[in-house]
Amino acid sequence: MGEIKDLLAKLEQFRDERDWGQFHDPKNLALALSIEAAELNELFLWKKEGDLSSVDQDKLKDEIADVFAYAIMLAGQYDFDVSEIVRAKILKNAQKYPVKMAKGNAAKYNEFEDTEE
Prior knowledge:
Elements: H1 3-17, H2 26-42, H3 57-77, H4 82-96, H5 99-102
């Protein structure tokens, strides 16, 4: 069993032991993911670049774990293979952001100027 599938199984076991599956429909999982992502962002709120090392590492780990857990569970609702869909997205992004146009450039793909002439 892959590591991500193993994590999903552990998360589902935790959920099922508490009878929380009734609350874990796709909408609620997506909302929970968004809320946990906001809690992750809150750790960095109002900190200057030089202050980022002061972020509580234990809280940071917890929030990253929460975001990842909800993302895995949401993918599980649709029987998506997380490794497969991430690899597919990397390929899509490679097409949208070719190195020669995107390297060192933070612009969105539809904002690139065609420099080839």
